[in-house]
Design a protein that fits this description.
By secondary structure, this protein is mainly alpha-helical. It has one domain. The protein has eight helices and no strands.
């Protein structure tokens, strides 16, 4: 090995070279792509339905049931890549590396970025909402026991003032 090669190698291994090497090799150390997808959808689900005294959406396992739906699975891969791009623009490796406020900002930016992200997030919200409020533990937290018809809501007969 020549001296020139050693100097080149040392230059590459400097701080900038190590950072560049780390960025190029990071995807190989990241968890399986499907695991990343599931964990990211769980994080988004918890942002949409954090629980606040009730179980969060991911605690109920709603994200895995929703990912089993073909229309969500088809949208999820590209939707999650858009969220990861928003995280990279903020200097992080992926969406999961963001803090809660940064995640909300990334969701807002992805939603504003175009129709595809909107379709993914709206479909995810629709299915999460339907599944979340159908859970027995969530339904039990509300005093509402059945459909309001034919008598309506007994304590809301008058128009709002």
């Amino acid at each position: 090995m020549k001296r020139r090669d050693i100097i080149t190698l040392l230059g590459f291994l400097s701080l900038g070279g190590v950072a560049m090497l780390w960025r190029s090799l990071a995807p190989f150390w990241r968890a399986d792509a499907s695991e990343h997808l599931v964990r990211t959808v769980a994080a988004v689900a918890d942002l949409m339905f954090p629980g606040d005294g009730l179980p969060a959406a991911s605690e109920l396992g709603l994200h895995t049931r929703i990912l089993d739906l073909p229309e969500i699975r088809a949208l999820a891969a590209s939707g999650i890549s858009l969220l990861d791009e928003q995280a990279v623009a903020r200097g992080r490796t992926d969406f999961l590396a963001l803090g809660e406020s940064e995640r909300v900002a990334a969701l807002d930016a992805a939603f504003a970025s175009g129709e595809h992200a909107q379709r993914f997030l709206l479909a995810l919200r629709f299915h999460l909402m339907t599944a979340y409020y159908s859970e027995a533990v969530v339904k039990a937290a509300f005093a509402y026991t059945g459909p309001p018809q034919p008598d309506g809501f007994a304590d809301f007969r008058d128009r709002p003032a």
